[in-house]
Design a protein that fits this description.
By secondary structure, the protein is mostly helical. The chain has 2 domains: about 30-255, MFS general substrate transporter like domains (Growth Hormone, Chain: A, Up-down Bundle); about 265-495, Growth Hormone, Chain: A. The protein contains 21 helices and no strands. Helix 4 packs across helix 10, helix 14 packs across helix 18 (about 380-385) and helix 16 packs antiparallel against helix 21. The radius of gyration is 24 Å and the shape is globular. The two termini are about 20 Å apart. Mean pLDDT is about 85; it is low at about 1-35, about 255-260 and about 475-480.
């Protein structure tokens, strides 16, 4: 097997771990000229005896383990806070935000959508800033700025102010690399905080206090990040000189690859003409419309069943637990059954589809049945998480990967923009049109991911037949080529 052949069954949890590891190296390995000068100065002053000793695999693992122990918790907490910001808007709504800010018609839906306009528009500028500024300081600055925006949310008095703050928060969070599975855990954290604030008796309305508390905590957290996140390995105050040297050697090793960073337009064109690209994009868009809708309207849906605002915040906690458990189970299943990912995604979507039908058709008097259907509907998130490894696993060629990842991300944002518009305030408390929309989206997602899997399987079979007919097998040298998956005859797709 060449390095371009993809092992089937790579689960999304592995994909997320890989993202975290890349995030660590991005933070530690800022490649500006200034950091290179710092590294040169450090090496020039370093005791030669420290550099002379060879670096064993065990020592390298110990240093990496130390990095993991410090950076992974910092990154995960930051991502949870970012995810809480996305879901807390729903709890704020049931605590009186709509009334206090005089929202009318579908303005609340636009409050949910406008966040992703900022997220989408600022993603590319954020990527440029990461390349040009000290990564850790930029990261801390963005966390601090979005915390300030959360505090500002508590002061909003109308739709214009609320929409402006939400748009700016979307822009600021674009620089914090997202980890999809974290979103499900955020409902647990936000539910506990919201329930506690619901018991307070102050002059401030609970929804304003909610944003003040979370904003203040995020500001404190940005201080923790400032202390523990360095701009370069040599600035890690908690590393010894030897550990800093090992880090520099790892960074040097990670940068010795032969990947071509220039844009190759034929690869961009190939990506745009590949039907698999648009099937993945369609799936991402359709699967995220329910996400955008539920993130904004989840608490309103539960209060519409007749529960009080305080009880609703508690009832939201199980959704995160159930979604996380389902996500883990599907990932384990996909990792153990080769080339089953698309099939698992399609079949697992039948569960939230059934729940959408039940929420749409069950009588309003069946409060417990509707609540149970609402809970189980949250299994919709696991199929999307499972799909996030497909763009990287099934694409070769630097420019083609960049293009596909950009399209997949745009589809994610557009789906979350459309989601809140599927639910209309005029449909409260039943939101029947919203459930119809969710059902239609899941059907489209099933068709798209099934067609994608079929195309991948057909292409693998075609390549296998051609390889059998060849008397001499030509193996591409993946380490020194920037060919696309279409150009590499040895490439096999994961489905």
């Amino acid at each position: 097997m060449t390095t371009d052949q993809k092992k089937p069954g790579l689960d999304s949890s592995a994909s997320n771990e890989e993202k975290i590891k890349h995030g660590q190296m991005d933070i530690l390995d800022h490649r500006s000229g200034q950091d290179e000068d710092v590294a040169v100065q450090f090496l020039a002053q370093l005791d030669p005896a420290i550099m002379a000793a060879p670096i064993s695999d065990a020592e390298a693992r110990r240093v990496l383990w130390k990095i993991d122990l410090i950076l992974i918790p910092l990154i995960m907490v930051t991502c949870v806070l970012a995810a809480v910001d996305k879901v807390i808007i729903s709890n704020a709504a049931i605590y009186g935000m709509e009334t206090d800010t005089h929202l009318t018609g579908n303005q609340y839906s636009w409050v949910g959508s406008i966040f992703y306009f900022g997220y989408l528009l600022f993603e590319y500028p954020a990527a440029l800033l990461i390349q040009r500024l000290p990564v850790a300081k930029l990261y801390v600055g963005m966390v601090f700025a979005w915390a300030v925006m959360m505090l500002c949310t508590a002061a909003t008095q109308n739709f214009a102010g609320l929409a402006t703050v939400r748009f700016l928060m979307g822009m600021l969070e674009a620089s914090v690399f997202p980890i999809s599975s974290i979103l499900t855990l955020s409902s647990v954290f936000s539910g506990v905080v919201s329930y506690g604030i619901g018991h307070t008796h102050t002059a401030l309305h609970p929804w304003r206090l909610l944003f003040l508390v979370l904003g203040a905590f995020s500001i404190l957290w940005s201080g923790v990040l400032y202390i523990f996140l360095p701009d370069s390995p040599v600035q890690c105050w908690y590393f010894s000189d030897r550990e800093k040297f090992v880090c520099l050697e790892r960074v040097k090793d990670n940068n010795t690859g032969m990947e071509d960073k220039t844009i190759k337009w034929y690869q961009v064109r190939e990506c745009l003409l590949d039907p698999k690209t648009w099937l993945l994009a369609l799936f991402s868009l359709a699967q995220n419309i329910p996400n955008g809708g539920l993130v904004t309207f989840s608490a309103l849906i539960v209060t519409g069943l007749g529960y009080s605002s305080l009880i609703t915040t508690v009832l939201g906690i199980p959704t995160g637990v159930l979604a996380t458990v389902w996500q883990i189970l599907l990932s384990l299943l996909a990792s153990r059954v080769p080339n089953s990912r698309c099939f698992i995604i399609a079949v697992s979507n039948l569960v939230p589809m059934t729940c959408a039908i039940l929420m749409w058709k069950l009588p309003r008097s069946d409060k417990h049945g509707l609540l149970a259907s609402y809970y189980v509907f949250y299994t919709y998130w696991a199929p999307y998480v499972l799909s996030t490894s497909l763009p990287m696993a099934n694409t070769s060629g630097h420019s083609k990967k960049l293009t596909l990842n950009a399209i997949f991300f745009i589809a994610y944002c557009v789906g979350n923009i459309i989601g809140p518009q599927v639910f209309r305030s005029t449909d409260a408390p039943s939101y029947s049109h919203g459930y119809e929309g969710l059902l239609a989206c899941l059907v489209v997602a099933i068709v798209a991911i099934s067609a994608y899997g079929v195309l991948c399987r057909w292409e693998n079979q075609r390549r296998d037949r051609e390889q059998e007919q060849q008397s001499v097998t030509v193996m591409e040298d993946a380490a020194f080529s920037d060919l696309t998956d279409k150009e590499k005859t040895s490439f096999r797709y994961t489905y």
